[in-house]
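ugh finaly. both done.
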Amino acid sequence: PRHHQGYEYGISSWRKWCEKHNYKLIILDELLLPEEEMLITWQRWKVLDILEYNEVEFDQVLVVDADTLIHPDCPDFFQFTDGELSSVRGQGCHEFMGRGIRSYSRLFFDKDWSIKVFECFQTGFVILNKSHKEFFDKVFKFYEDNKQAIKNSYETIRTGSDIILLNCLRGEFNQEINYLPKQFSLEALFTKNLLKVSPQQWFEDNLDNLYNSGWIYQFNSIPSTPEKDRTYWMQRIYKELWEK
């Protein structure tokens, strides 16, 4: 599908990084349930159950979006978690986050703010371990108890699927987050002028600033042109970093 284009470059970068650090890469490419029942963005949070069912031994696991690329020199982020649920603060659209938090908080919790915008973590980069199963069990019980209202909210609130509500549930269930530095999941690249999408942008078309701004790149919310869409950027950056 078109919305999957470019993923092969992200997956390849992660495979090479994992081989370098002696970690195992597991790709979630099969659904646990039809997406009419639960979108895959929710299903990924069954990762602890999936690993246990398949008898995979692990200390920590990173759940990361396929539309990301990792730099070959990225340090081992597992060393910075202190065994806590770990992610990076959201750096994207604050209107999107604020509108979503207020809407979900009013819909489900009879309040305006379950969590502050500046406390939101990125759901595209989350490190967890077996001690966090209780939190995710609560998340899925909430999902099952409110399934239809959650599915209806995608069209009415229009802030994606799991991103905002999972953050609200983190606030409601008092789940602590260990925030890693933003370089471990750099998002909103276009708004930071790290990608030259349009000739009207005054800076040169090179990626030096990108590579000096972060170790892991999230390819979300990038304006597409006929010449430069997400696949273009993922392919170009992958080749510059991993095939030079």
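ok and the 2nd:
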Amino acid sequence: SIFDPVLCELMYEWFSPIGGKVLDPFAGGSVRGIVAEEMGRRYTGIDLSETQIIANKKQSTKPRWLIGDSSEILNEISEENYDFIFTCPPYYDLEIYTDNPSDISNMDVESFDEIYKSILQKSVKKLKNNRFFAIVVSEVREPSVTGKYSTGKYRGLVRKTIDMLEGAGLEFYNDMVLFNSQHQASRVGKVYFERNRKIPSVHQNVLVFVKG
């Protein structure tokens, strides 16, 4: 999937100063980095996948791309050095990115939560005072299925993210909704609801926190 570049423009314009340093502990694709640099921000993105980082560099060498485990690399980055944190983590195992055992998209829920919390906490320590932390997350269901339709209960990724970041000392400041494409939901929504009484998801949550 390709991250929404318009969302990037808005986040950088609204919540980061021109010339400011942006940290992304779950860098993934290139969009957040490229938009940041083109808007006069200095971006550092960390991703476990060397293949992904190589692909990012082919699109732009302006961002600072770091290959490795965020839980380790964040230990080496200076404290309170960033003006904005903007990221989008894996949604549990909804999409498996690599076969690396350190990749949290490969982990069970308890292990994911533990490492995810650690990365968020370490990222918060890199944020200057009176600065913002924005993260895009969505709810994910457990993998129970009826036929080809997911029927499991929500795993609570949005709620957990809020609790983790508040526990790290941030204040929950803004909650926005990013609408996804409606076409797939409209095509399968009636069958999905009649079988399981579940509503297809058509949005992601954009959560904004403040430090200070």
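summary for the 2nd one i guess: The chain has seven helices and nine strands.
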